[in-house]
Structures are given as C-alpha cells and as structure tokens.
Amino acid sequence: MSVAPSVAYYNGDPRFWRSNLVEIDWGSNAAYETVFVSDGARARGIKVSQAHLIALLPGGPRGRKQLRGAGAWVAAEASRMKAANEIPPDIRITEFARELATRMDEAAAINRSIRPIKSRSIESKLRDWGLWPITSIK
Fold this sequence. Notes:
Layout: H1 15-18, E1 22-25, E2 30-33, E3 42-44, H2 50-56, H3 69-83, H4 93-110, H5 119-125
Antiparallel strand pairs: 1-2, 2-3
C-alpha cells in the first residue's frame, strides 16, 4: 500500500518539516515522508542539532526529559543568567561551561545539597540539556 506524497516541496521548503508524515532517521542523518508514501520528499545530510530540530517541529519538544540533579541546577542558573542579560552574545561553549561550573562551586559552598560537576562535564551536556546555543535557553 502506498499513497501519493502530501505536497510537492522545493529545496529548503520549511513546509516539509511541518508535515505530519515526516519521519526523522537520526542514525542516517536523514528525514523523509513515512514509508507508506511512494516517491515522497526526502532530506539527506541534515546539519542541524537534534535539540534545534526538535524545537522547530510542530507540537513543541517531544519526549524532553525532566532534568534532575546537576542538570536541573545548571538549567536553572543558565535561565537566570539569560534573563538577567549576564551571558555575552559572543560567548563560546567552553567559557559558558566554565562560568556555570564556577557558579555551581560557589553555590555548593553555601548549600551542601548541591553536588558540583566539572566544566568539561557541563560542556559535554549543554546541548543535550537544551542549553546550547544560548538562544535555546528558556
């Protein structure tokens, strides 16, 4: 069984991403209309982070995990910093992670329930936590 493609898309057409037939294959770095569509639209070699793409898909983020522990603390501090305009627009991810680690260490000195983590650990998780790039911080 197959049906016709939902619509004719042009290269780079944003309507492709809004289609309820789009299936994303993270392993192959590709997206296409579901398998029941013959000759459906395809996008290959996608160069968008998963966090950015999920934010752009209809219905908002899907399956976003609730952050706990250090991740929750880092997310809350990053949101507070963004709201207070304390993040320079040209900051690099390493610098941002170092600043967050420093603030976490300072907070842990006051509050023993906070278990600080190293800046490298923060840097490696910022994208997974939806905190990089800075524009993705809520």
